[in-house]
């Protein structure tokens, strides 16, 4: 999936799959209601197209604010998409946004929510939510299938 960025007069949002298993939502400057709506629509389509995604990295280091109702929209979106997701990482420098992550912890108890100051740390934590392949069974020769008659 290529980066999908939407800009308006206030700010911009980007949706992309990174490391093959993490959906990154990036917000810069002020996120309008229309921009947030578009971002969550694109994010839903990305999850549908990438069933291997198990975590969302919400990068808000350059986020300066958002329209009323955007937090409720985000909570609703995570409730609707939650069956596919195990973790949500919020990258922020804002004490207010970090505090709001507690709303997510309460309203989305099935998801593991964490706050980071570094995108790199958050990405490592998110990638750890990816399902791992089961180790291949070793054939020792001791257990043979009976010959078919």
Characterise the protein shown here.
With about 150 residues, the chain is of the alpha/beta class. The protein has one domain: STAS domain (Transcription Regulator spoIIAA, 2-Layer Sandwich). It is about 35% helix and about 30% strand. A 6-stranded mixed beta sheet has the order 1-2-3-4-5-6, with helices on both faces. A hairpin with a 3-residue loop joins strand 2 and strand 3. Helix 1 runs parallel beside helix 2. The longest helix has 17 residues.
The CATH topology name reads Transcription Regulator spoIIAA
Number of strands: 6
Overall shape? globular
Largest sheet: 6 strands, mixed
Low-confidence stretches: 132-149
What's the quick description here?
It is built from 4 helices and 6 strands, in the order E-E-E-H-E-H-E-H-E-H. Strands 1-2-3-4-5-6 form a 6-stranded mixed β-sheet, with helices on both faces.
Topology (SSEs and partners):
Blueprint: E1 4-7, E2 11-18, E3 22-31, H1 33-49, E4 55-66, H2 70-81, E5 87-91, H3 95-107, E6 112-116, H4 119-127
Parallel strand pairs: 3-4, 4-5, 5-6
Antiparallel strand pairs: 1-2, 2-3
Helix pairs in contact: 1-2
Using brief descriptors, characterize the structure shown.
149 residues; Transcription Regulator spoIIAA; 6-stranded mixed sheet; globular
């Amino acid at each position: 999936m290529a980066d999908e960025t939407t800009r308006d007069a206030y700010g911009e949002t980007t949706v992309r799959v990174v490391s093959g298993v993490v959906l990154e939502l990036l917000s810069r400057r002020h996120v309008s209601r229309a921009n947030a709506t578009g971002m969550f629509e694109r994010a839903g389509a990305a999850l549908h197209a990438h069933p291997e995604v198990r975590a969302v990295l919400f990068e808000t280091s350059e986020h300066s604010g958002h329209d009323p109702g955007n937090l409720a929209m985000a909570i609703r979106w995570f409730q609707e998409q939650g069956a596919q997701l195990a973790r949500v990482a919020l990258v922020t420098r804002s004490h207010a946004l970090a505090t709001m992550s507690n709303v997510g912890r309460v309203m989305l108890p099935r998801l593991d929510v964490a706050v980071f100051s570094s995108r790199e740390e958050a990405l490592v934590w998110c990638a750890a939510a990816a399902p791992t392949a089961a180790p291949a069974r070793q054939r020792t020769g001791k257990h043979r299938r009976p010959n078919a008659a």
